[in-house]
Amino acid sequence: MQNKSQGSIFVRIHAPWQVLAREAEFLKIKVPTKKEMYEIKAGGSIAKKFNAILQKLSSPLQPRVPEHSNNKMKNLSYPFSREKMYLYNIQEKDTFFDNATRSRIVHEILKRTACSRANNTMGINSLIANNIYEAAYPLHDGEYDSTGEDMNDRKLLYQEWARYGVFYKFQPIDLIRKYFGEKIGLYFAWLGLYTSFLIPSSVIGVIVFLYGCATIEEDIPSREMCDHQNSFTMCPLCDKSCDYWNLSSACGTARASHLFDNPATVFFSIFMALWATMFLENWKRLQMRLGYFWDLTGIEEEEVSSEHSRPEYETKVREKMLKGSNKSVVQKLEASTPEDDEDDEDKLTWKDRFPGYLMNFASILFMIALTFSIVFGVIVYRITTAAALSLNKATRSNVRVTVTATAVIINLVVILILDEIYGALSREWGCSFSVPKTEQTFEERLILKAFLLKFVNAYSPIFYVAFFKGRFVGRPGSYVYVFDGYRMEEAMCAPGGCLMELCIQLSIIMLGKQLIQNNIFEIGVPKLKKLFRKLKDETEPGETNSAHSKHPEQWDLDYSLEPYTGLTPEYMEMIIQFGFVTLFVASFPLAPVFALLNNVIEVRLDAKKFVTELRRPDAVRTKDIGIWFDILSGIGKFSVISNAFVIAITSDFIPRLVYQYSYSHNGTLHGFVNHTLSFFNVSQLKEGTQPENSHFDQEVQFCRFKDYREPPWAPNPYEFSKQYWSVLSARLAFVIIFQNLVMFLSVLVDWMIPDIPTDISEQIKKEKSLLVDFFLKEEHEKLKVMDEPAPRSPGVGEWARSRAVSAAPSGRSQPGSMASPGSQHTNV
C-alpha cells in the first residue's frame, strides 16, 4: 500500500502459475502426490480400541471443520518439481497451492526483488523501512461475519475457534496452520498444550490447598500462637511509637500461613518441577507429530527462515562504503546488486559493531538498574510509611496490612508501566545498535533482551520478599538503621512463618497483571486504536472512493485493521505466566488454577485478535518454536532452585523438622513457638528507642523476638545459638538434596519419554517406502506410455497428442498449462 498526498494507492500483486511453480520448486515446498492419503495404523488392538473410545467421548469437543485431523490419514507428499509434474494430482491450478503457500511464495519474491529507483534497495521490507511503501500484507479470504451462505476459512475459524462461546472445544490446529502458516499454527498448538497441562497441576494445587484447610485445626504451632494463656510478649516493631505486643494478636496470620506452609507444599514443589519437564517433553513430541503431518520433518535450516539482509543492515553497510574516499568503491556499490550482497560475507566487522554493542549493553544495564531502583524506592516507601503510621494510635493496629497492601499495588502498577516501556524500547533500541544482519538473528536477540528486562521487572519484588526482606533487620538493641534513623523493615510474617507475605505478593501481581493486561491492553487498547484510525480515515481528505463506498474492497477493509507485529508479545505473556506458575509455586499452590482460568480466555482472545482485528500475516514456515523452548527449559531448571530455597529459607518447614526430631521431648511440635523465640532484656534498649507511654498490661522485663540467639543470662548473650547452626545446616542440606533429587527425576522423565513418538518414527520409514514404490510405479507408467508404438498413418490431432504426452514429463510445451492460472493477490 503506497500513501500519496491525494490518498491511498493500492498495488495488487498477481502471481501466475509459472511463477508459483518455479518458486515452489525453488523453496522445496512439499505438495500432495497422486497417492494423496494413506492410513496411519495405531499400535495394537488395545490402542485402537482406546483411541476409538477416546475419540467418541471427545466428539462434542471437536471443532466442526473439514480440515480437523484425526491423525489416521496422511498425505503422501513430495517437494514440488516441474520436471515431475506427472507425480502430482493437478486438477485445478487455481487451488493446487493453498492461500498460505501462495502468500509465502509472493512474499519471498518481494523480499528479494531489487528496486533500482531506490538506490538498488533490496526487497519490500527495505521499501517499507524507507517509507516508499506503507504496508504489505496478504488479503483475508473475506469477511468473518458475513450473513451469506458462502463459507470461507476465515469465517469458519471465527465460528469454530475465535468466539468465547466455543471455549470448551479443541482448536482446529490444521485449519489455523492452513490459513496463517506454520509459525502461528505452532504457537496456538503450544498454547493449547500448555493450557491442557495446567489442568492436572490445578487439581493437585487445589488438593494441597484443601489439605491445608482441613488440617488447620491440627496445626500445633498456630494453636500455640493463638493461645492467649501462653502470653508471649514481643519486642516493639519500631522505635518510640511502637509498644510491646502479644504474639496471640498474630493468630490470623499464623492460621492463614498454614494454608500454604504445610508438608504438602514440598510434595507439590517436586510435582511441579516434574510437571514442567513432562510439559516440555510432551511439547517436543507434539511438535514432531505436527511437523510430520505438516511435512516439516525434512526441511533444512535455510528453508525455514529467510536469510535476506535487514534494511537497517543494508543502510549501515552503504553508509560505511560511502564514507570511503575511493570513488571506485562508490561506483562498485552503485553497480552492485542485492544478490551480490547476499553472497558476500558479513561486511560489518567487530570494530563497526563495538559501539553498538557498548550502547546496547549500557542501555540494558540502565533499564535493569531502573527496575532495581524502583524496587528500592518501594522498600523506602514501606519503611517510611510504617514509621509514619505507627505514630498515630488510630492506624497503629493496621500498619502491616496497610503497608503491605499499598506496596504490592504500587509494585503492580510499576510492573505494568515498565512492561510497556521495556517492550517498546527493546524493539526500538535493544538490537538496533548492534545491527543484526538477518531477521532471524534480530528476532532472537530481541526476544532475549526483552525477556531479560521483563523477567527482572516482574520477579524482582517477589525475590525481595522471598529471600531478602527481614534478613538484615538486626536484633533488639542492635537494629540496622537506614535513611537517618529508619529501621530496616521486618518480615510481616516473622512471628508465624514467612510464606504468607510472599503468597500475597505473588497472587496480587499475578492476578492483577493477567486481569489488567487482558481487559485493558489486549482488548481496550486495540479497540481504541481501531476507532482512532477509523476517525482519522474519515476526516482525511482525498481518500479513494472505494474506502467510502457501500461495499468496500477487501484491501480497504484489511488496511483498516491493526498491523501484525509478530508473536513475541503473546509468547512473552505466557512465558512470564509460566514463571509465576513454576518459580514460586511452593508459596502459592493456587497459581496453576488462576493461570488455567486466564488461558481458557486467552486462547479465544488471541484467536479473535488474529481473525478479526489484525491484518493477515505472511505465512512463515518453521519447524519449532525456536528460542522460546530454550527459555522455557531454563525457567523449568531455575524453578527447582528457587522452590528449594523458598521451602528451606522462607517457610518454616525445615525449622519444624529440626525441632521435631532433635529438640522435641515427645516427637511432636508442642513447644515449637517458644523454641523459635529468643529473649531480650528491655533494660538494654538504646536510649530514645524505648516505647513512649507504654499501655501494656503488665510490666515487661524480657521481650521476645524471632531468632535463634543466646539469652541475656548466657555467657555470650545474643550470639547465635547452637539451634541456629543446626537449622542453617539442615536448610543447606535440604537445598542440596531437593535440587539433586528433582534434577535426577527430571532427567529420568526426560530419558523415559522419547522425543519422537514411536508411531511417527515408524510412519516416517513407512512413508519413505511408499514414496519409493510410488515413484517406481509412476516411472513405469510413464515409460509404458512413451514406448507405445504410434499408428501407421496418424492424423494431425493424434500426432499432436502423442507429442504432448511425450513432452509432459519434462514440464515444457504442455498444452493448456496456462488455461487456468493460479493467482495470489498481495497489497503492497
TrEMBL record:
Residues 811-828 have a biased composition (Polar residues). GO terms for cellular component: glutamatergic synapse; neuron projection; non-motile cilium; nucleoplasm; presynaptic membrane. InterPro entries: Anoct_dimer, Anoctamin, Anoctamin_TM. GO terms for biological process: establishment of localization in cell. Residues 4-173 form the Anoctamin dimerisation domain. Residues 786-828 are annotated as: Disordered. Belongs to the anoctamin family. This is Anoctamin.
